[in-house]
Amino acid sequence: MSGSSQEKSAHARLTRWILWAMLLGIATGTALHALLSALDPDSPIATGLREGLVNGIFQVAGQAFLRLLTVLVVPVVFLSLVCGSAAMDDIRKLGRVGLRALALYLVTTAAAISMAMGLALLFGPGRGFTLDAGANFEARPSPPLADTFVNLVPKNALEAMAAGNMLQIIVFSILLGLALTLAGAAGKRVLGACNDWNDVIMKLVGIVMSLAPIGVFALIARTFANEGFGAFGPLIGYFLTVLLALALHCFGVYPLLLKILARLPIGPFFRKMREVHLFAFSTASSNATIPVTLNTVEFRLGVSNPIASFTVPLGATINMDGTAIMQGVATIFIAQAYGLELGPPQLLMVVLTATLASIGTAGVPGVGLVMLSMVLTQAGLPVEGIALILGIDRLLDMARTAVNVTGDATVSCIVARSEGELDTALYNDPAK
Ligand code: ASP
Known about the structure:
Layout: H1 3-38, H2 44-87, H3 91-123, H4 145-150, H5 157-163, H6 166-182, H7 184-210, H8 212-227, H9 236-262, H10 267-283, H11 286-299, H12 305-318, H13 321-337, H14 344-357, H15 367-379, H16 386-390, H17 393-418, H18 424-428
Helix pairs in contact: 1-8, 1-10, 2-6, 2-7, 2-8, 2-11, 2-12, 3-9, 3-12, 3-13, 3-14, 3-17, 6-7, 8-10, 9-13, 9-17, 10-11, 10-17, 11-12, 11-17, 12-17, 13-14, 13-15, 13-17, 14-15
């Protein structure tokens, strides 16, 4: 077998294994949930299943896998961005790429939330809803906009890395990469070492990815064992509206953008994104998925390293179209549930707050709900309404994270194409 068809079958095999692991996880988790709901919670069998399996083996295997992915994020982002920005021959190009990516990220997020609110207004999932009086949820005040910008600049590079502050790591890595190109022979030596380290870390990404079937099974089985489908009940309208908006954005808007702005075929994109989708879905974290997204965007979709290493981590932090969609539907849902009308100024405020709140909020599980509390506060809606949707948020978090990472990859391809830095042969190569 030739090298590339071997690679293809390895990728296809891994994706298939992860898919099976996910389905098995859903089935196992759902069965366990049903069993645990039927059993007396204090019976030895229920305790054994809950503590030994769900909160024992599944929790350990799932969290260990998640940690392995997460531990790669900072080295992957730092190294690939240092190498990437050192390879950008022109500083103006960096500015251009940055502005284009930022504009696309913000515009797609604003479009996503507007569409989501439109659908929610149309379907009215919150009409005729009765509120749970005991509900409460702590609102987090939104940070002043000036702080968002000041916080882009790290004051301690190691602290930024230790905290996993993606935007500060991006700023520091780009500055370091630029300095390497200006530092003559010393810069070349350090850059050589960085390139070597980058190759080593990417190998490690491959090793961790090969453990995915076990990790994904454990994560999904535990989630479904804990959540089950019982919490849906009256929330089914909300759930389906979010899913519909996510599907329209993912399979309608992104393909259109790829076609119109980058003149690229859609098939290879979605085929190669399968692995990334599965990782994002099972981890519910765009951040933890960065190593896999970067790997796919660069080595399978053909985006050059300088562009991919910049747009992917940036996107994981500031681009959350899926999250914005949930926020759009949730805002209308909560307003309807409380019998409140939102006028055009309030709707606009929701779009603006949700789009801006996504800047500087790391892509980790559940962060969308924290951002939602800011959006609701700005729109003058009761923040306690969040408690209504808490119960089913984890499942939606998984789906919206898959959309978030699709947005990151779409914008990466468009920006690379506009700079003439997308290898279309690699993009179209079915063997990669
Ligand atoms: N889990 C999402 C992400 O990592 C963020 C969210 O919607 O909560 O992209």
